[in-house]
Amino acid sequence: MKRTVAKKRYTASDMRAVSNNPEWTRSDFAKAKPFDEVFPTMRKGRGPNRAPTKKLVSLRLSAEVLKHFKADGPGWQTRIDETLVKIVKRKSY
After folding, report:
1. What is the C-alpha separation between 13 and 19, in angstroms, rounded?
2. Domain extents for the chain?
3. What share of residues in the chain are helix, strand, coil (percent, to 5)?
4. Which of 44, 53, 60, 47 lies closest to 78 in space, CA to CA?
5. Distance from the Cα of residue 49 to its chain's centroid
């Protein structure tokens, strides 16, 4: 069963809290600089994986397996991987 998340509605109080932020003018846009230029040492995103330990694959799983792993929420793909690693280790000894 799919859960729906209620959308956040902005209140009049929320709008008043940010109303002191004026709209940008042409002059403001002309003076704006790119993020990398303003913050050259700040890293954006996660960046490349230096030593990839996993491979991207496409895999078809039964509905029963997906339901089982997705039932515990986010991280279900990691849990499937951990389960498969345990099975491989058990079989290789």
Report:
1. 10
2. 13-42+57-91
3. 45, 0, 55
4. 53
5. 16
Mean pLDDT of the chain: 86
pLDDT digits (tens, 9 = 90+) for 21-55: 788 899 999 999 998 889 888 877 777 777 778 88
H/E run at residue 33: none
DSSP of 42-60, one letter per residue? PPPSS---SS---------
pLDDT surpassing 70 at residue 93: no
Q: What is the pTM of this model?
A: 0.46
Q: What angle do CA 31, 33, 41 make, to 5 degrees?
A: 150
| 17/78 Cα distance (integer angstroms) | 41
User: What is the CB-side half-sphere exposure of residue 30 using CA atoms within 13 A?
Assistant: 3
Name the 3-class secondary structure at 80.
helix
